[in-house]
Amino acid sequence: MVSSLVRGAKNELYQFISYTNADDDAELIDNFKQRWSRVLPCDTTIALDKFQLIRTLGRGSFGRVVLALFKSDNTNKNDGAKFFAIKVMDKRKLVRYKQIDHTLNERRVLFALQHPNTVRYFFSFKDNSFVYLSLEYISGGDLFTYLRRTGKFNERHVKFYAAQIFLVFEYLHHFDILYRDLKFDSRPENILIAENGYLKVTDFGFAKHINGRTYTLCGTPDYLPPEIIKHKGYGKSVDWWTFAVLCFEMAAGQPPFSGKDHIQLYESIVNQRYTCPSSFSSELTDLVKKILVIDVTTRLGCMANGNKDIQNHPFFDSINFIKIYHQSENPNNIPYKPTKKDPLDLTSLSQAEEPIRVSRHNLHEEEFRMF
């Protein structure tokens, strides 16, 4: 997507204009700008009663994500898709916790994104009690659950997954968007595994378009970079810090920093109290140590060469980023492909699905006028 240097499978350094080609690259950039600038009214032709709600996929602070089957065959809204992951957000909670702007921004970001490793947005709608985002249903579960089941990943698998997160961050940063919410062991899960074994990043509630620095305190405690903890202005550096924490946790089975409470955890982070396990290769240890540094001006990914310093690091020598982007990697190199399941199979449910109860009165109508 963005001009890059990529190391091929034979440790060969070669240059390419984009992960597609120059014309497609220009078109995708133009499409992003057009989609980003559009005003997004909600879809008044869609309502909750047009869906069969099957089961809850995950829960968050402001609602839940529900697997839903679209009942009607007379719509072109789904581009052939029948199943959706619908993010159901309670208006009252969004107002109470001052999350309206984040919700509007999440919809805007999702609409603008066009990347193979980000979840696809279809449409949004609202009713008296809730606002809804209809997203691509990813049936393979989440990366965190797979990691906990495995314990830890070998470094070949770490590279495969980390390369995809790198491509997402490279894409977002090209358009000056911070993700700010990479995490494991937290709900809702935001790194999903598709049927083909590749990743899909979701949950863009904390994503933000920036021009310079921002100061918002957000993120998951284990993954917070020191500049956020110290209430300093920050930019793209925060995403690369979380990238290194993710690489560490995938390879070690636990994050690098710990503490009996948040205060001790934050002290551990700002004082860089961590040790790379002896099982780490010298390349992985070097990558982690060059990113997890306090001074952002010397942090890998934040210097003159930007993200290319990460992409061209020896840890990724065996990775062909073009193949990863096009999801054309040798199938034998894909660590895990989820078992295909019937979305309508309810045998794993331990209890009846909780209904979505809608008020007779239009709650917070004015606050959500722009949704």
Structural features, described:
InterPro entries: Kinase-like_dom_sf (IPR011009), Prot_kinase_dom (IPR000719), Protein_kinase_ATP_BS (IPR017441). This protein has helices at residues 22-37, 91-96, 100-112, 143-150, 155-174, 226-229, 237-252, 262-270, 282-291, 308-311, 321-326; strands at residues 4-7, 13-16, 51-60, 63-70, 83-90, 121-126, 130-136, 177-178, 191-193, 199-201, 208-209. The model is unreliable at 1-17 (pLDDT under 50). The protein folds into two domains: 39-137 and 343-371, 2-Layer Sandwich (Phosphorylase Kinase, domain 1), CATH 3.30.200.20; 143-333, Transferase(Phosphotransferase) domain 1 (Transferase(Phosphotransferase), domain 1, Orthogonal Bundle). It has 371 residues and is α+β, with helices and mostly antiparallel strands. Helix 1 (22-37) packs antiparallel against helix 3 (100-112) and helix 7 (237-252) packs antiparallel against helix 9 (282-291).
**Principal-axis shape:** globular
Strand line-up of the largest beta sheet: 3-4-5-7-6
Percent of residues in helices: 25-40%
Strand content: 15-25%
Rg, rounded, reads 21 Å
Count up the domains: 2
Task: Give the low-confidence spans.
Answer: 1-17
- CATH-wise, what's the superfamily of the largest domain? Transferase(Phosphotransferase) domain 1
Structural class: alpha+beta
Classify the fold: give the CATH topology of the largest domain.
Transferase(Phosphotransferase), domain 1
CATH-derived architecture of the largest domain: Orthogonal Bundle
Give the SSE string.
EEHEEEHHEEHHEEEEHHHHHH
